[in-house]
């Protein structure tokens, strides 16, 4: 595969080597793909040119949660998509990822989420925050029972923050409704 300097750089991090390699093999040739198998390798591989990180949440030695924290602490502004068989819990509300996919993940889902993240990286910060909140809300609504949601302060805080941002940007972002519909239609949590 021949890539050019303008090709988006995707870092795949998963301790299941065959799965990580499969993800890498499924991505289109226009991505420059780097596959690593643990958190230490991920932190060595990431740099300012990394556009999207596909990050397994449950890994031995250094979890994906810890890798995510270190990515943000080191100032990298790349888009991070958690990919995990771990059922998300209310703790995701404060985690600084951009999207979350539950395994198993199809090649179509991988490509869709990468394209979505590449498109959103150039958009308004508040729009990105709104979509990240919506992703977390939808994920929790799929994974949790209604009574759990009703009893969760974290869930209600996510909803409150999303409504607040939506009120601020709905009239300011020209294509807000179109983006919101597209996001809801392609969200893999549903």
**What is the CATH domain class?**
Alpha Beta
Structural class, please? alpha/beta
CATH-assigned homologous superfamily:
Response regulator
SSE order, one letter for each helix or strand: EHEHEHEEHHHHH
Q: What composes the largest sheet? A: 5 strands, parallel
Specify Rg, calculated over alpha carbons.
16 Å
- Low-confidence parts lasting 5 or more residues at pLDDT below 50? none
**Which outline best applies?**
globular
CATH topology: Rossmann fold
Approximate helicity band: 40-55%
Number of helices: 8
In CATH, the architecture is: 3-Layer(aba) Sandwich
Query: What's the mean pLDDT score?
Result: 90
Strand share of the residues? 5-15%
- Give the oligomeric state of the chains in this entry, treating copies of one chain as homo and distinct chains as hetero: single chain
Amino-to-carboxy terminus distance: 34 Å
How many E-type strands?
A: 5
What number of domains?
Answer: 1
Strand order of the largest sheet: 2-1-3-4-5
3D structure, described in words:
The longest helix is centred in the C-terminal third of the chain and has 19 residues, at 125-143. Helix 3 (64-73) links the parallel strand 3 (52-56) and strand 4 (79-84). Helix 5 (125-143) runs antiparallel to helix 7. A 5-stranded parallel β-sheet has the order 2-1-3-4-5, sandwiched between helices. The chain has a single domain (9-186), classed as Rossmann fold. The mean pLDDT is 90. It contains 8 helices and 5 strands; from the N terminus they run E-H-E-H-E-H-E-E-H-H-H-H-H. The protein is 49% helix and 13% strand. It is an alpha/beta fold and 190 residues long. The radius of gyration is 16 Å and the shape is globular.
């Amino acid at each position: 595969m021949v890539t050019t300097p303008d090709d988006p750089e995707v870092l795949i991090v998963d301790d299941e080597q065959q799965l990580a390699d499969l993800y890498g093999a499924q991505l289109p040739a226009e991505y420059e793909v780097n596959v690593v198998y643990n958190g230490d390798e991920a932190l060595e591989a990431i740099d300012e040119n990394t556009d999207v990180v596909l990050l397994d949440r449950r890994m031995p030695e250094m979890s994906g949660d810890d890798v995510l924290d270190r990515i943000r602490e080191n100032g990298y502004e790349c888009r991070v998509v958690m990919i995990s068989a771990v059922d998300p819990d209310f703790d995701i509300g404060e985690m600084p990822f951009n999207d979350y996919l539950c395994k198993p993940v199809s090649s179509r889902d991988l490509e869709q989420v990468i394209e979505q993240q590449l498109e959103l990286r150039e958009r308004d910060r508040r729009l990105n925050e709104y979509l990240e909140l919506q992703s977390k809300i939808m994920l929790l609504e799929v994974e949790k029972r209604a009574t759990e949601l009703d009893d969760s302060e974290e869930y209600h805080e996510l909803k409150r923050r999303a409504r607040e941002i939506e009120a601020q940007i709905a009239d300011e972002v020209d294509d807000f409704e179109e983006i919101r519909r597209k996001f809801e239609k392609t969200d893999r949590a549903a």
